[in-house]
Write a structure and sequence with these properties.
five-stranded mixed sheet; globular; 7 helices; alpha+beta; single chain; OB fold (Dihydrolipoamide Acetyltransferase, E2P); D-amino Acid Aminotransferase, Chain A, domain 1; 19 strands
Length: 336
């Protein structure tokens, strides 16, 4: 299903000031470094999807639990008896973003993911070649809930007529219900604060970064939940991101420390521009290099996401770096 959630656009001072003047305040939320999850709760069961409607491999084993879902749908506190979608950020506790997103995209059990695995068929020595499904332990998952929509609104391409201010109450109610019916997952609200002065945003951003958060999401309290990347929600972060596919390799410079290692990828962006996306960890260099030594075309065509500091007037990207693969183990060429 194409869930098409509301995605924040780049920071726009004029638009934000206009929203502040109209509403008298702004909602400022922490921006979490996670995997956007769109979780469907219907009579047929639960479905863990990504923001583009693809199944999340490590959580697929939790799909289709109709008995639990039916109890939730019949809960008197639930206003969406015909089903609903939770829009959230999914994070794996105790690991960084790259590790967590990689685990959520993983389909097969392996020695590296054993401590996150609750599949009783997997052992610490299990290799991917055995094709034992990886089942992410839900106790490891933290879900920061952004919004809740009834299924008829999910299926519609139109905006959902609930504004950001009211949505906070809807999500708070649903988080309480989810904690009771699905207690293994750590359901939480996003941290948020009402702001009445534009100049308060800069120190809040600095504080968020110092706390290890990715940045801020600034919301117009009067803006309805829209579909797709639309104004009304703005992201305040030091980098932007872009999607593309791997078309080449970037090797370490001869004579320097990373000589002979893959230090990144040449990426053809959806915009048509090709960039060198580097700035990866030593562990990833070792992993990428080992795979390329077996097959030089191992990563060709893989769907990836890069991040960059800003776009210059001529369309070039400053400091592009590899962020993550967007595909799954089963289909690394299609973004999740």
């Amino acid at each position: 299903m194409k869930t098409n959630p509301f995605k924040a656009v780049n920071f726009n001072e004029n638009a934000i000031k206009k929203a502040l003047a109209n509403a008298g305040s702004l909602i400022v939320e922490s921006k979490y470094d996670g995997v956007r999850g769109n979780i469907l709760f219907q009579e047929s069961g639960i479905k863990f999807l990504s923001r583009v409607g693809k199944s999340i491999p490590a959580l697929a084993w939790l799909d289709d639990q109709p008995l639990s879902t039916l109890r939730l749908l019949k809960d008197d506190r639930n206003p969406f008896a015909q089903g609903f979608m939770i829009d959230c950020e999914l994070m794996v506790k105790g690991v960084d973003f790259n590790t967590g997103s990689g685990l959520l995209r993983t389909a097969q059990s392996d020695t590296k993911n054993f401590r996150f695995n609750c599949n009783p068929e997997a052992e610490e020595s299990t290799k991917k070649s055995r094709k034992v499904p990886f089942q992410m332990d839900p106790e490891r998952i933290e879900a920061r809930v952004i919004a809740v929509l009834p299924m008829d609104a999910v299926r519609s391409p139109d905006e959902y007529p609930v504004d950001s201010a009211l949505m906070q109450y809807h999500t708070a109610n649903m988080v309480a219900i989810l904690r009771q019916h699905y207690p293994n997952i750590d359901w939480k609200m996003t941290k948020s604060e009402d702001v009445f002065d534009f100049d308060a945003l800069a120190p809040m951003f600095i504080k968020a970064r110092e706390a290890g958060e990715e940045g801020l999401i600034i919301k117009d309290p009067l803006c309805n939940y829209k579909r797709g990347k639309k104004s009304g929600w703005w992201k305040m972060k030091p980098e932007d991101e872009a999607d593309g596919e791997v078309v080449g390799l970037v090797w370490g410079t001869e004579g320097l420390a990373n000589e002979g290692k893959v230090i990144g990828f040449e990426v053809l962006l959806e915009s048509g521009r090709v960039v060198n996306a580097t700035n990866i960890s030593q562990d990833l260099m070792e992993e990428f290099t080992a795979n390329v030594q077996k097959d030089v075309d191992f990563y060709m065509g893989y769907a990836v996401q890069i991040k960059y500091m800003e776009e210059t007037p001529d369309g070039s990207l400053r400091h592009p770096s590899f962020e993550k693969f967007r595909g799954t183990e089963a289909d690394p060429f299609t973004k999740m």
